[in-house]
Amino acid sequence: MHAVYWKSLALELESLLDSWWGFSLFIYSKPKEVEDPVSRPPYELDELSLQDLLQEIPLWVKNPNYHSVDWLNKFFSDLWPYLDKEIGGMIRSVAQPIFAEYIGKFQIESIEFEKINLGTLPPIFYGLQVYETNEKELILEPSIKWAGNPNIILVVKVLSVPITIQLVDLQVFLAPRIALKPLVPAFPCFANIVVSLMEKPHVDFGMKILGGDIMSIPGLYHFVQETIKKQVASLYLWPQTLEIPVLDVSTVAVEKPVGILHVNVVRATKLLRKDILGSSDPYVKLSLTGDGLPAKKTTIKKKNLNPQWYEKFKLIVKDPKSQVLQLQVYDWDKVGGHDRIGMQLVPLKAADTP
């Protein structure tokens, strides 16, 4: 009994001594100087350190040739609900030749989209590289990643039996080259958008049929992924391109203005009588061929066969070697069309000759 008592007392004394020793060490020990942590700018860190610091390193961080395009992501985020229908139509047109290759194979009779809904998550631009060339073009190379939530439903008819397939959990990573060409002096300042892929895109998605995941079938997932990559690459992998027309180049004056033509309309004499009462109400229309701009007009001189205007005009000249100044005199009528009294053509090349 006494041995147990003395053993318990010894344990309590040992615990008190440990507490006193720790308290004394805390009170009487000299504090050490707190050292500032070593800080380094991000550009001095290696890629592994940056990966620990950032979940994903944007291209504009790793490559100085790429630009940060947060504004573009904001733009697409606000515009995405309105782009859904337009992009859906483009997907249908692009997919038609791909689907056509499988009609008649594997007892497939038709492949059609029942629904194309791109979801609420827009693509994300991780960087943009801009090239300037000696041609009349602007080349853009964005890095695009899209982990979206679309609802795309295909109906495949096999042996007259329709099979509904739903694409879900779509992920697309691609780096397209977008050329805006040719550059023209008319809004939006380029006539075509030419798109091509510099490398095969990464495509990942799930496919559900009748409530089951058919991508879980061994070998099917890899086959479908590679088939889609090959089909997209055969269509748009450089030098193959997708060309989207924006402006009709034939209607755009590509030549830059080279000068201004000053025209002073002074007078006309002995004009023909076009009115019933034996007079005319003349005015002059001025225009340059090839500019596509509305003609300019003088004032109307009522009941005058020898009118005087002394009115000055300025016309923009783009090609003085081929353009012609047109001067047309019309008789103004209150009702119906105006009758042309006469016309004079003045080639700018001849006018410039001393």
UniProtKB/TrEMBL annotation:
Pfam family, one: SMP_LBD
Compartments, as annotated in UniProt: Membrane
SMART domains: C2 (SM00239)
Residue ranges occupied by any C2 domain in the UniProt entry: 238-354
GO biological process, one term: lipid transport
GO molecular function, one term: lipid binding
PROSITE patterns reported for this sequence: C2, SMP
Domain SMP-LTD: 65-247
UniProt keyword annotation of Hydrolase present: no
Keywords: Calcium, Lipid transport, Lipid-binding, Membrane, Metal-binding, Repeat, Transmembrane, Transmembrane helix, Transport
GO CC entries: endoplasmic reticulum; membrane
Membrane topology: Single-pass membrane protein
Family membership noted in the UniProt record: Belongs to the synaptotagmin family.
Listed PANTHER family: EXTENDED SYNAPTOTAGMIN-RELATED, SYNAPTOTAGMIN-3
Full protein name: Synaptotagmin-3
Biological source species: Prunus yedoensis var. nudiflora
